[in-house]
Amino acid sequence: MEEDTMKKIDGHLHLVRALAGSKCQGRLTPLGAGYAIWDNGEVIKLIPDGWGEDDVLVEKYLEVMKENQIEKAVLLQGTLNGYQNYYSYQVAKQYPDKFSAAFAVDPFADFALDIVKRHVEVLGFRAIKFEISQGGGLHGFHQPFSLAEHAKVSQIMHYLADYPGFVVTVDYGDSSQTSYQPEAIVALAKRYPKLDFVVCHLSFPNADHLDRLENVLTQFAPYENIYTDISAIQDIEGERSEAFPYPRCQKDVKLAKDILGAKRIIWGTDSPWSATFNTYEQLATWLSETEIFTAEELEQVMYENALKVYFKPDHVQALKDSVDPAVAFLQDNK
Known about the structure:
The chain is α/β, with parallel strands linked by helices. The chain has one domain (8-320): Alpha-Beta Barrel (TIM Barrel). The chain is built from twelve helices and twelve strands. The chain has helices at residues 58-67, 85-94, 112-122, 151-160, 182-191, 210-220, 233-237, 247-260, 280-285, 295-310, 313-321, 325-332; strands at 8-13, 22-23, 26-32, 35-38, 43-45, 70-75, 99-101, 127-131, 167-171, 196-199, 226-229, 265-266. The strands form three sheets. A five-stranded parallel sheet has the order 8-9-10-11-12. It has a four-stranded antiparallel sheet with strand order 2-3-4-5, with no helix packed on it. It has a three-stranded parallel sheet with strand order 1-6-7. The longest helix is centred in the last third of the chain and has 16 residues, at 295-310. It is globular and about 60 Å long. One of its GO terms (molecular function) is hydrolase activity. Keywords: Hydrolase, Lyase. InterPro entries: ACMSD, Amidohydro-rel, Metal_Hydrolase. Pfam families: Amidohydro_2. This is Amidohydrolase family superfamily.
């Protein structure tokens, strides 16, 4: 393989200060060596070898970035690892030109709006992640709800409308789950045209059912404020290292390009978990081994689109200007 010199932003990454997963399998307890166990007894390999025993800290990921020519990364949240909101803030605050961060909140919590306001007004976040999937998110331990119609979510969205360019990133799971609701994304994008929406994992594609993906992307197409990231589609399609550069994923991404265009597709990895199935290097280079995109389009997918959505200059400045009250508290109470 030739040396990879393409500029890259990993548009879907998870750093883990302390494993605190909680979803349909119960609570997650670390076991060491990158393994963890759910309350129902299921053991998973969550962290690649060499990345950490029970955590994935920024110091380690900075090494991975250097090894793979990753210039920036977007820190997202999920119930798999447990929300890492505050650690993500600390990392992005320390490296504001290298990391952008989204926070997450359970809208069923009584203090959900207060949590949102703190992250936006005090900590300077300009992105929120809704992990609502039944398999890995809120629908696994709440009654089914519509992201576009739920009263508490609507309260949050009305508040976010005061911040043009705010990013709402959503993982709604696959079509077998009650959480699968692309139509809700369309409704929200129409209702809030000044916000940006990112659908994770290319709406959970299946190369054997491209008509379904075509239907979803055709719904998204008229709305320029809807983007999709293509993280973890290797996991979803069941393609492992030996399948590199992933023929099933190529079919999915080719269709996305045909319908949405290259300017609305964001590359990402969904590491660390996805890097236990395929190496990070493979996830970072597979698109360069295909003929889906021209060189200019590939730069858009690998770098420019994430820069435009997640690293808006005023959003970076909001983070830089934030004053962390916890730091002052600790200093005053030493």
